[in-house]
Design brief:
- With 269 residues, this protein is of the alpha/beta class.
- The chain is built from nine helices and twelve strands.
Length: 269
């Protein structure tokens, strides 16, 4: 019998993940942050609860969301673009208190490759590369990774995704017609949503806990090369790049994770 899975964050990634795991006969429950979203999910026959993280407490049905589950997929980005002064670490600390009191024994934290800073060297970032973020979001995500990994009440696997895309949410559309785009010769690091779901599923089904993985499509193109190709295919205007300043970036070696999971990326985004 498959384990019951709680998914905190039934959004762009969490909802299709819930639907995919349910088709594999996992019993799933998830959370969203507003009553309107919850009502919409319930209409879709999604087992949804209302949960919101504050720096002082977790409000809503967190006990119900975690009840009887063995696995938690924690899929809550910091949201620091909307709230730059928010303390994401404090919010997750409040959640951890509830996890410790629950039946959860395994946590899969959906992290980000923003825990690695950009440089002009473009050395490969592997699963063993130590985080060195300098941005506020990257630093807070790194601290959350450490909080989860150091907690002896449950086993944690860290899964860091590069830029998330699918056909309806593609950076080429947002980049089209932009002027003076920075870092044209930096590596592009992206991953399709369906590959994200495939990798999460592989980790759960293979019972791979207390691990750290970086996931990114095996592209070996610069941003300029990539957007020239994709914009041409989509028949949209190409961005204009600023080639007068040195490019900074990083190359996420996603093939290492694919090998470890015996997973083959299905999309070159």
């Amino acid at each position: 019998m498959n384990s019951k899975i709680s998914i905190i964050g039934l959004g762009w990634l969490g909802l299709p993940l819930y639907q995919h795991l349910s088709k594999l006969d996992f019993s799933c429950i998830g959370s969203t942050t507003t009553e309107a979203k919850k009502e919409d999910l319930v209409k879709q026959e999604i087992n949804a609860t209302l949960v919101r993280f504050l720096e002082q407490e977790v409000v809503g049905d967190i006990q119900l969301c975690l009840k009887d589950s063995e696995i938690l997929v924690l899929n809550t980005p910091p949201g620091l673009r909307r709230e730059p002064n928010s303390n994401y670490v404090a919010k997750i600390q409040q959640l951890i208190k509830h996890i410790e009191k629950s039946s959860i024994r395994k946590v899969l934290y959906i992290s980000s490759t923003s825990v690695f800073k950009d440089s002009d060297v473009f050395a490969a970032v592997t699963n063993k590369t130590l985080p060195n973020a300098v941005s506020n979001a990257g630093i807070q995500i790194r601290k959350v990774e450490e909080l989860l990994k150091s907690n002896s009440n449950f086993q944690t696997t860290i899964l860091r995704f590069s830029g998330l895309v699918n056909d309806d949410r593609h950076p080429a559309t947002m980049m089209s017609k932009r002027k003076s785009v920075k870092n044209p010769y930096a590596p592009v690091n992206l991953i399709h949503r369906k590959d994200c779901i495939g990798i999460i599923t592989s980790i759960i089904q293979s019972n791979l806990w207390e691990q750290t993985y970086n996931a990114s499509s095996p592209l070996r193109l610069t941003k300029k090369e990539y957007y020239d190709v994709v914009c041409s295919k989509k028949n949209i205007s190409k961005p204009n790049f600023d080639e007068n300043k040195p490019s900074k970036g990083k190359w996420i070696n996603g093939e290492e994770t694919a090998s470890a999971l015996n997973y083959k990326y299905k999309y070159l985004v």
